[in-house]
From TrEMBL:
Domain of life: Eukaryota
Residue ranges of domain HNH nuclease in the record: 148-217
Region (Disordered): 325-347
Identification of the protein by name: HNH nuclease domain-containing protein
Pfam families registered for this protein in UniProt: HNH_2 (PF13391)
Entry-linked InterPro entries: HNH_nuc
Amino acid sequence: MTTKESRVEGIVMVWIEIFPPFSHENTTQGDADESNFSSSCIQLPCLQIPKTHITNFCRKPYKWIRFITGAVAGAAGMLKWKDGEEVDYNAELTPGDTDIYFFIDSAERARAFSVDPDLANAYVTSGATSTRRAEFEDELRERDGATCVVTRMPAELCEASHLISHNKGDEYIDVLTRNCGRDPDNADHIDDIDDCRNGLYLYMSLHRQRGSRDIGFLVTPNLAMSSNDMNPEWDADQPQWVFHDFRGTLDPSPEFSIPAYGMTHPHNQPIRIPEGRNDWPPRVLFDAVYASVIMKYFSHKEFVDFVNAHWKDRYNQREVTATCSNGGKAKRDAKRREKKATKIREK
């Protein structure tokens, strides 16, 4: 997307107004207003992004910045300059360092749930059994057509990859999807870490890079972008899941510029979506994974420290949401048993 001649030098520093969790707990969307948050509002540097890289991820740099900041904050918002004027989201980047401010309105403040900086951490215990893991792999292979959804590599070169790490456990994904999902019918809620909606069938190398937060999947349209902001030939409202290779794009090492690497890491290309999208992962999981990659590469230490101090424990506390029901998991288990029985009858 970006040529050497068109690169713009400088850093974009994104500032954000963020609130300690007690504001989230004591305020509902119905009674949220500025007075509820003014006493606890803290302005922090959130992201620092080299301008040379931004248009490698989107043709509309300010729209992309707006989306990733909202994904990290767990809330929609708008970008403004220091004088309060809203940013022109179709504008080009200009040379030099730039400060931008991300503002969240009252209703969104009430639902904000910041991303966990350690979302990909694999050192969290889980009670999941090997049987559930095996069923997870079987379901992904069947749903995704026994080929990698990114590269179309065959099954013998692929692995079942959790979007939210398996070791995070059921409670973690329950809290995440309950608090960050936006589906009005709560259809994006997941309470089983081995639910096939928490996974993709990926080429082995991509599976490892997903775990190390080096790749992400940008879903459009979203609260800040249309699909044709990524590619002018795409319909604005046509859903796309775009593969982004952060390591290969940001690392200048020669190994990432050879054609063979590009074949297995098709940056800025849409991934293959199973027909019908049955049991396909909800947007909330793709956004969480994408936000965690953004945090790895572009987060400011002050923001990370604040989130770790005030928000991180909320991912391990069911009481921050409504009482969890096991109904969803029971339905998933019943569906698995039914599918298994059907396969046995067909043999």
